[in-house]
Amino acid sequence: MSFAYEVFQVLYFFLPAYLANMSPVLIGRRFSALAIPLDGGRTLWGKRILGDHKTWRGLLAGIVAGTLIFELQRLVYEAGIAQALVVIDYSAHPLLPGLLMGLGAGIGDAVKSFFKRRIDIEPGKSWLVFDQLDFFLGAYVFVSLVYAPPVLLILASLPVVLIGNITSNAVGYWLGFKETWI
Ligand code: CTP
Ligand code: MG
Question: Which atom of ligand 1 is the closest one to the Cα of 59?
Fold first, then answer.
């Protein structure tokens, strides 16, 4: 099997993480009762810990999306479709890896926001590369508890994730989901 194909398999494995990362934007203004900031409005050294853009609604949406997409991948696998794409036995791993990817994506994103606030980048303002890779690295760390793809394949996936994320963000902006094009 070629290296490029193995990278492709890893990208397919992390599908729940991409959808988890998009879910807070896709959910829009629904479930407004959950639109509470994760940091509860608290500050650290006079600056918001995470800021208003990191909410419980977004974190929970990511956990649900990650779990559902992973479950869908399991059903596809068990139906005998796209089996050449898989790196794990989905039948032996129900739900948990998807939940971990969704949670990890959200925590990776929030940790990134923590650092953005420390260096005075406002919520919603771009921090190139970090904004694009945060969720992927978070998902990788968390899902490693169950299955860790080889580090070399993760590193090779990063440029694809970066470009893919910039592209989908631009499409999201064009469709009116995102406020900024990057
Ligand atoms: N979002 C949310 N809760 C989360 C993550 C995201 O409600 N835990 C929503 C917010 O409305 C946010 C949007 O999804 O504006 C896009 O998220 P993202 O691009 O990750 O955040 P930024 O707006 O860039 O904010 P920050 O500077 O804190 O990263
Ligand atoms: Mg983000």
Answer: 8
Q: Does ligand 1 lie within 6 Å of residue 117's CB atom?
A: no
Nearest ligand (C-alpha, residue 107): 1
**One-letter amino acid identity for 33?**
A
Assess whether the C-beta atom of 54 lies below 6 angstroms from ligand 1: yes
Per-residue confidence in pLDDT tens, the chain, 182 aa: 899 999 999 999 999 999 999 999 999 999 999 999 999 999 999 999 999 999 999 999 999 999 999 999 999 999 999 889 999 999 999 999 999 999 999 999 999 999 999 999 999 999 999 999 999 999 999 999 999 999 999 999 999 999 999 999 999 999 998 888 88
The helix (run of H) or strand (run of E) holding residue 96 is helix 96-118
* Predicted model pTM: 0.96
Tokens of 30: 């629904």
Ligand 1 pocket member 124 (CB < 6 A): yes
Distance CA 140, CA 142 (A): 6
